[in-house]
Structure formats: structure tokens, C-alpha cells
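From the methods appendix. Each design record in this collection lists the discretized structure first, followed by the designed amino acid sequence. Records were kept in a plain field format so they could be parsed without special tools. The example shown here is representative of the layout used throughout.

RECORD:
C-ALPHA CELLS (64 positions):
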């Protein structure tokens, strides 16, 4: 997947796509919520990239 940012195409890393696929379950990849997830984890909002990577790698247990 590529995103347009300031008229440039940026390649989105696969780990960000996997995270946003699982985090935003009911949204297509062209949905604003999904794109917002991608932009946030690409660091476009000024967040710390290392902290975002730790969030993506954190395992959240699911209890039945």
C-alpha cells in the first residue's frame, strides 16, 4: 500500500498494515479510520516512531 503525502508516494511497511488491519477491523483500506491509523503509525502526526513500534509489537491477550 502507498499513501500520498505532500504529493509524494510513501510505501507503508507491512507491520503497520498488519497492525491497522487488526486494530480497525470493520474498515476498508480506503476508509478514513484506516488511513488515520496508517498515518499515525507512520509518525506523520509527530508521535515517537519507537514508541509506536512498541505499541504495534505489544501482544494484547484476548479472553473468552
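DESIGN:
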Amino acid at each position: 500500500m502507498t499513501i500520498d503525502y505532500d504529493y509524494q508516494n510513501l510505501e507503508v511497511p507491512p507491520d503497520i498494515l498488519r497492525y491497522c488491519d487488526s486494530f480497525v477491523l470493520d474498515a476498508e483500506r480506503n476508509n478514513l479510520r484506516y488511513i488515520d491509523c496508517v498515518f499515525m503509525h507512520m509518525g506523520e502526526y509527530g508521535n515517537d516512531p519507537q514508541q509506536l513500534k512498541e505499541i504495534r509489537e505489544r501482544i494484547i491477550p484476548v479472553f473468552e
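APPENDIX NOTE: Residues 2-57 form one domain.
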